[in-house]
Specification:
heterodimer, A: 244 residues, OB fold (Dihydrolipoamide Acetyltransferase, E2P), 2 domains, 5-stranded antiparallel β-sheet, 7 helices, 16 strands, 28% helix, B: 346 residues, alpha+beta, 5-stranded mixed β-sheet, 7 strands, 13% strand
Chain lengths: 244, 346
């Protein structure tokens, strides 16, 4: 069994101690560090690249969601909260696990079990082959207004420009994130994502059909039913990629 | 039959007595012969009994067949019908009496006058209409009175339940965080953990039991505040410093329960908890220019608090308003990096 690398971000020292005591029963989880606030937490995550994050929601100045928003890729996250139904309910999709403090030992073991099985299903490598920051199994945290999602990159069908924002399409959801499409493109692995035109980046695994279009363009239908035109400039690239 | 001694029956009796008395007193005093006077008394009594009895009948019918949403026109027809039936019954009883009893008493035949017949019936109709108007007015007044009493009761119930709901608020986040922290503290400092459990129990008991009182002594409230601060210190450790300045002469002054507690809770939740390096909470209570002033000052900015403290502050304002009306006031402001919450009360 692989060891999982974990970090704790939690403002109360005693609550961190509690987690450390609970983790003692799980020798395959290696605690890399702990942070008492969001800024320290972000630094810690950047430097240690953990697989698993124990995260308190209520912390001074910035909260747990602010921390997740600041990360390109989020580790598997277990929220620890005293009583915060509201925050937990804001998760629309891929409800992550959360533990209520004081933490029940059995409940804790179950959460760890869930994390383990997640890692067994998904082979994890810290960075993709082509040197991009993200890989197909990378998990993203998306917050749009009051709603939050945890989504794996390979679940995303399409990124599309929408003003200064980018609209992310996955399943039935299409939240907006405050990043430019170019910023996103730089981080996405080439093996799975393709810049179809100036407006859109598509997931190559989500293509349903391709038909030739006029002016040397191509027209794609994606699994969610949306239609995307591939510009003439990109068409050759696209054909190469799929070895037509 | 409760009809006969019901308070509504009084109108019936009064209207008939007042309407008939003058006519019969006049008739009695102008009667020349003793036998006429005697007959007048009998007729008057019968008239009164008939009038009152038939009116009760009408009232019973009106009450029995009353439909709340009946159109006004139908109701009018229905009531007019009752009057007509009552009138016929009246004539069927009164005229044989007038003719035969009077003839028998005076030993000579009596022919009823046409004008007397019409006149009596018109008078009867007028009496019934008068009675009905008074009766309806009386009912309206009664209803009005009842709804006044009812709404006063409602208002006082509402006030009570609002107060209870407002007082009982102890932040669940605080409770669970504290329990978790005490659990962690047990591994390092058993004595302090034990002490913290006692304090937390006291706080819970205070919010469950004592907060149902309308007022509590300043001293008791401050004990709870100290409990709150001690437990919060487990969470915030050296990030939380606490000072208090309480005028000892006012320790027994009655104040609304949980009010200082709530301000201190807000000061930690929205002040200290948001600051990485923590800060100071200061509580003052004492007289200032004829007002009793409670002031809670904490390091921090009001901007942080703006979104979320609304509920807590509304709670305080509402309670002060319910208890003291406009004699008390509450203010919250930021000055030189400090947030100052102030209550003035009589």
């Amino acid at each position: 069994m692989n060891t999982l690398k974990a970090v704790i971000v939690e403002d109360s020292r005693l609550a961190r101690n509690e987690l450390k005591v609970l983790l003692k029963d799980f020798p395959d989880i290696q605690l890399l560090g702990e942070a008492a606030n969001v800024d320290e937490g972000i630094e810690l995550i950047h430097s240690t690249q953990p697989d698993l994050l124990f995260l308190d929601i209520n912390m001074p100045e910035k909260d747990g969601f602010d921390l997740l928003e600041a990360l390109d890729e989020v580790p598997v996250t277990i929220f620890t909260t005293a009583y915060d139904e509201y925050a937990i309910k804001s998760f629309e999709y891929n409800a992550l696990d959360y533990l209520l403090k004081p933490i029940n030992t059995k409940r804790f073991a179950k959460a760890i079990e869930k994390v383990r099985s997640q890692f067994e299903q998904v082979p994890h490598s810290s960075s993709s082959e082509d040197g991009k920051i993200l890989h197909e199994h990378s998990q993203l945290f998306i917050k749009d207004g009051e709603k939050c999602w945890m989504v794996r990159l390979n679940e995303i069908t399409l990124f599309e420009i929408n003003g200064n924002y980018t609209q992310v399409y996955f399943e039935q959801n299409k939240p907006l994130i405050y990043r430019s499409l170019n910023q996103i493109e730089q981080k996405l692995p080439d093996s799975h994502f393709f810049r179809a035109n100036r407006q859109q980046i598509i997931n190559l695994n989500h293509i349903k059909s391709v038909v030739p279009w006029f002016n040397g363009k191509l027209k794609l239908t994606l699994q969610n039913g949306s239609e995307v035109e591939i510009s003439r400039r990109q068409s050759a690239d696209f054909k190469n990629k799929l070895s037509f | 039959m409760r009809f006969f001694y019901d308070k509504k029956a009084i109108i019936n009796y009064l209207v008939w007595i007042i309407s008939l008395a003058p006519a019969y007193i006049l008739k009695y005093s102008t009667a020349k012969e003793a036998i006429d006077k005697e007959y007048t008394i009998y007729e008057g009594i019968l008239y009164l009994i008939l009038g009152v009895g038939l009116t009760f009948g009408i009232q019973m019918l009106i009450d029995k067949y009353d439909r709340p949403k009946e159109p006004i026109f139908r109701k009018f027809i229905r009531i007019a019908g009752y009057f007509l039936v009552a009138l016929i019954l009246y004539n069927l009883i009164m005229y044989p009496f007038a003719i035969y009893v009077s003839a028998w008493m005076s030993q000579e035949p009596v022919s009823p006058s046409k004008y007397g017949f019409i006149g009596t019936n018109v008078v009867n109709i007028f009496i019934w209409i008068t009675w009905y108007i008074v009766y309806v007015l009386f009912q309206l007044l009664d209803k009005l009175q009842q709804s006044r009493v009812h709404s006063a009761e409602l208002a006082s119930n509402l006030r009570e339940s609002q107060l209870n709901a407002l007082k009982g608020q102890i932040n669940p986040h605080f409770i669970f965080n504290s329990l978790n922290n005490i659990r962690g503290l047990m591994l390092e400092d058993v004595e302090r953990s034990r002490d913290s459990l006692t304090r937390l129990s006291e706080m819970l008991r205070y919010s469950l039991v004592k907060s149902t009182n309308d007022s509590i002594s300043l001293e008791e409230e401050m004990e709870m505040v100290q409990n709150f601060v001690e437990i919060s210190k487990i969470q915030f450790e050296d990030r939380l410093s606490y000072e208090e300045n309480i005028d000892p002469t006012y320790l027994s002054k009655p104040i609304p329960p949980m009010i200082i507690q709530l301000l201190v809770e807000n000061a930690t939740k929205h002040g200290i908890a948001k600051l990485k390096n923590g800060g100071l909470v200061h509580v003052f209570a004492g007289m200032e220019a004829d007002n009793f002033v409670i002031r809670v000052i904490n390091t921090g900015q009001l901007a942080y608090a703006q979104n979320s403290t609304k509920l807590g502050l509304q709670n305080i304002e509402k309670r002060l308003d319910l208890l003291y009306g406009n004699k008390a006031s509450f203010s919250l402001e930021e000055r030189e990096g400090k947030v100052i919450a102030e209550i003035k009360m009589p």
